[in-house]
Design brief:
The chain folds into 2 domains: 2-110, 3-Layer(aba) Sandwich (Cobalt-precorrin-4 Transmethylase, domain 1), CATH 3.40.1010; 132-291, Methyltransferase, Cobalt-precorrin-4 Transmethylase, Domain 2 (2-Layer Sandwich). 41% of the residues lie in helices and 16% in strands. The chain has helices at 17-25, 34-43, 58-70, 90-99, 112-120, 137-149, 163-176, 202-210, 250-262, 267-278, 282-291, and strands at residues 2-5, 28-31, 50-52, 75-78, 104-107, 127-132, 153-158, 183-188, 196-201, 218-222.
Length: 296
């Protein structure tokens, strides 16, 4: 049997009695980082064989684990923190077990996504978990395009050194769509000594972190877009300038383009992103940007 065991995301007291019993009774523990898991086991006085199972050895080590499971071994799968299978290769081992007719069960535990959602104060009757925010420009642009129209609360993870850039992108996105008031909750160091939850608009949070370098593990919770009577996302009720088109102004287009190029996006890619974001043709984007005297 494969036991998928949730472990603490910070505070070791959050581990369950059932999780400890499962780890004690397992024949083998497959861990994302054996050194990290060894610290957890040592804290609770548990001594068991450990093997690593992570992104770069998941194929070879996964085959080894499947072999042991077929021989009748009980294997506990753990990640560095939280629930295995969420943003790590654990799901592939679970899938392989299912395909090989091997029993799988889960030992519930802490999860940063759910903890942040509850703390955010944002609607939780329906939400989207988006994993880590993409770093590559095209995937990142596509992510924000979906985010702009998503009506449910979106929960995602972000690295501390990209927090300011991401808040800037979100601020520009919402301003460009005429919804600068959409709220966020940025959760940091959940369950740890320095746990912190900051709530406000992207612009407000950007101002906070611009003066204090972000540190720790971050979870973003982003309010969904409002829905109109026919179920389509609203652009917001803010006023527009005379050159407003479909709920946004040319100033917003220029601001979005400038923000993209300032964050390292090439002028060409920034134009493509602006085209997608605002639904304009290349010639229209070119004209708007050229009027501001910006390089293209």
């Amino acid at each position: 049997m494969l036991y998928v065991v949730g472990t603490p995301i910070g505070n070791l007291d959050d581990i369950s009695v059932r999780a400890l019993r499962t780890l004690e009774n397992a024949d083998l523990i497959a861990a994302e980082d054996t050194r990290h898991t060894l610290g957890l086991l040592t804290h609770f006085g548990i001594k068991k064989p450990l093997v690593s199972y992570f992104e770069h050895n998941k194929i070879s080590r996964g085959n080894e684990i499947i072999g042991k499971l077929k021989e009748g071994a009980d294997v506990a799968l753990v990640s560095d923190a939280g629930m295995p299978g969420i943003c790590d290769p654990g799901y592939e081992l679970i899938r392989d077990c299912i395909e090989n007719g091997i029993g799988v069960t889960v030992i519930p535990g802490a999860c940063a996504c759910v903890s942040a959602l509850v703390l955010s104060g944002l609607p939780s009757d329906g939400f989207v978990f988006a994993g880590f925010i993409p770093r590559e420009n095209k995937k990142r642009a596509a992510f924000f395009e979906v985010l702009a129209a998503e009506t449910r609360t979106t929960v995602c993870y972000e690295a501390p050194h990209r927090v300011v850039k991401t808040l800037g992108d979100i601020s520009g996105l919402f301003a460009g769509r005429g919804t600068p008031g959409r709220r966020l909750a940025v959760c940091r160091e959940l369950t740890k000594t320095h746990e912190e939850v900051l709530r406000g608009t992207a612009e407000e949070l950007l101002a906070h972190f611009a003066g204090a370098g972000p540190k720790g593990e971050f979870v973003f919770c982003i309010e969904g877009a409002s829905e109109s009577a026919d179920g389509t996302p609203e652009r917001g009720s803010g006023s527009c300038s005379p050159d407003c088109r479909d709920g946004f102004s040319e100033d917003a287009v220029r601001a979005a383009y400038e923000q993209l190029t300032a964050s390292g996006t090439s002028p060409k890619e920034a134009m493509k992103t602006a085209q997608t974001r605002f639904g304009l043709s290349r010639n229209e984007i070119y004209r708007i940007v050229r009027l501001s005297g910006k390089e293209i």
